[in-house]
Amino acid sequence: MDKHEVAAILDEIGTLLEIRGENRFRTQAYHNAARAIEQLEESLADVITEGRLDQVPGIGETLREKITTLVNTGHLPFYEDLRQKTPAGLLQMLRLPGVGPKKVQLLYSQLGIDTLTKLKAACEEGKIAALKGFGAKTQAKILEGIAFLDKTGQRLRIDQAQAIAEDVLERMRACPGIIRLALCGSLRRRKETVNDLDILVSADDATPIMDYFVKLPGVTQIVGRGDSKSSVVLSKRLYDNRAPVSMPADLRVVRDEQFPFALHYFTGSKEHNIAMRARAQEFGLKLNEYELAGPKRRVKCKDEADVFRALDLDYIPPELREHTGELMAAAEHQLPELVELSDLTGVFHCHTTWSDGGASVAEMAEAARQFGLQWLGIADHSQSLTVASGLTPARVRKQQEEINAVNARMDGFHLFKGTECDILPDGSLDYNDEVLATFDYVVASVHSHFGQTQEEMTARIVRAVSNPWVTMLGHATGRLLLVRDAYKVDLEPVLQAAAKHGTMIEINADPHRLDLDWIHCKRARALGIPLVINPDAHSTAGVGLVRYGIDVARRGWLTRDDVFNTKPLKQIAKVLAERKKKATGD
User: Fold this and answer.
1) What is the CATH number of domain 3-152?
2) CA distance 248 to 266
3) For a surface tag, which of 128, 255, 269, 558 has the fewest beta carbons within 10 Å of its beta carbon?
4) How far is the C-alpha of 147 from the C-alpha of 546, rounded, in Å?
5) In which element (H, E) is residue 460 found?
6) In this structure, how many other beta carbons lie within 10 angstroms of the beta carbon of residue 386?
């Protein structure tokens, strides 16, 4: 059992204990241990074997014993007993916004509610509003949350689906007889949420591969087992989930000469495939998942690029296959050279222990340098966001002194001083001009009053992006994928205002957000707005979240020239200095 699985179980134990009403110190010990294990930069098994687990902060004797048992045996009777005693529906309730373990415990102990169905019925009967600590507003939000979960179904975020897919692919590579293996479907197209996994294999004999697939660890249900296709349900523990997540997965096995056609077909999208079939017909050919052929000839293709080449098209990256003009661009050799992760020189939106981050300024800087970046922007929360330990002006001064000190001892790496400054309900900023002038840049974000009307929210954000102190707009719509819809905002006036005032727009790469989405990225690009890919990192590992922002950027047809933080450090510093000079009126 690896560190991620152990961390997920420890975190879940903490949550299960919270639901059962255990004291805060005991529950927090498990959550803290989970974070410590997750952030280990070496193998947990090696740490245990070498007897160094007691050197990990926050891991006492009791937790050492439990972690060692988990790693060595793959089981923990204490955890398994705890799960068995806790109705599964209680964990599902935690997916609702604003419903934490304490509220779940109250619902269960006072009303016997242990499923979402019972919770919905209790809301509709007005029982939740009458419960102490809830009220009519909470009851309404719970009903909205249940409706949202019904709408999104069992979809998973891209990072969750990716974790499951990587595990499956790694295990499948050990299966004898496989010639080629690939991931297809919406995950290959890098969609922000995914319903199922599509795995493609080429082989001479499908039978042993099907047998291997349906017996993989994590398979909780065999939906179907056929000669060329098998379907299962996979389950995996993920660190940021309080319970294991499940996902359907399909395996298709084809002959190796069919593999390029099948890879293209099962990658999709449906609309892209329809357009490709129409293109093939113009050449007197028929394209399907098995071949590209006409009445008198069959086109041989060694790989997927050959399929496009046979139809006089440049290769279309999977991220662009949404039938939004990619075929025309490929025919005219006008496809963009999409931005790559390696193009980024640094990122701006990162938090430290000064606000709600889990690592110090120095630790975040070193993590960014290890990731291959040349610079990092520190942007802790501003004073109004007290729930996230937002910085008062006095604390800003102390934080900036620390950033200067770290800069002084880091050779070949630079830290920029920034802030994630709250956009207040009227569109003004959370700091006055005197404080704002101390920063190299300002990320302006909405963190409160989500219930404003569309007119109010739009005007609020337009005013903010028009402010000369604002360098970039953070997570523009405030959505949390599969948890919360965006607040009501008309982004077109926001983008127009950003274009007018030269304000950048963030692609928030946190897979909970991915905001802007790829559609609005295309619109921003058309308006000439510089996009910035930021991880919104709250830990050293969080710096790596930028890879998901790259996915969004590529789906939005962005090149490295469209993304501001691909520029060299000197150019970044020059642009920020010029914007700051303009804001001060110098």
Assistant:
1) 1.10.150.110
2) 15
3) 255
4) 31
5) helix 454-465
6) 9
Domain with CATH 1.10.150.110 in the chain: 3-152
Using alpha carbons, select from 358, 350, 406 the residue that is nearest to residue 379.
350
Span(s) in the chain for CATH 3.20.20.140:
341-584
Residue of 525, 514, 560, 482 lying closest to 191 (CA atoms):
514
Q: CA 368: distance to chain centroid?
A: 18
Q: Which residues contact 129 (CB under 8 A, 6 or more apart)?
A: 123, 135, 136, 138, 139
Total count of residues recorded for the chain: 586
In sequence order, which ranges of 193-348 are alpha helices (DSSP H)? 207-214, 259-267, 270-282, 304-310, 326-331
Q: If you search the block for the tokens 């802030």, which residue do you land on?
A: 419
Contact present, 109 and 21 (Cβ < 8 Å): yes
CATH superfamily of this structure's domain 341-584: Metal-dependent hydrolases (3.20.20.140)
Could you tell me where in the chain the CATH 3.30.460.10 domains are found? 157-331
Residuewise pLDDT in 10s, the chain (586 residues): 778 788 888 988 998 999 988 888 899 999 889 888 887 878 898 989 999 998 888 888 889 999 999 999 988 999 989 988 988 888 888 878 778 888 999 999 999 999 999 999 999 999 999 998 898 989 998 998 888 777 766 789 999 999 999 999 999 999 999 999 999 999 999 999 999 999 999 999 999 999 999 999 889 889 999 999 999 999 888 776 666 788 999 999 999 999 999 999 999 999 999 999 999 999 999 999 999 999 988 999 999 999 999 999 999 999 999 999 999 999 999 999 999 999 999 999 999 999 999 899 999 999 999 999 999 999 999 999 999 999 999 999 999 999 999 999 999 999 999 999 999 999 999 999 999 999 999 999 999 999 999 999 999 999 999 999 999 999 999 999 988 889 999 999 999 999 999 999 999 999 999 999 999 999 999 999 999 999 999 999 999 999 999 999 999 999 999 999 999 999 999 999 999 999 988 6
Alpha helix ranges (H) inside 59-188: 61-73, 77-85, 88-93, 101-111, 116-124, 136-152, 158-172, 185-188
One DSSP character per residue, 357-413 reads -SS-HHHHHHHHHHTT-SEEEEEEEBTT-GGGTPBPHHHHHHHHHHHHHHHHH-TT-
Question: How many angstroms separate the CA atoms of 26 and 569, rounded?
Answer: 46
Cβ neighbours around 574 below 10 Å, total: 12
Beta bridge partners of 484: 480
Omega of the bond prior to 269 within 30 degrees of 0, cis? yes
What residues form DSSP beta bridges with 194?
156
Separation between Cα atoms, residue 27 and residue 16, nearest integer Å: 8
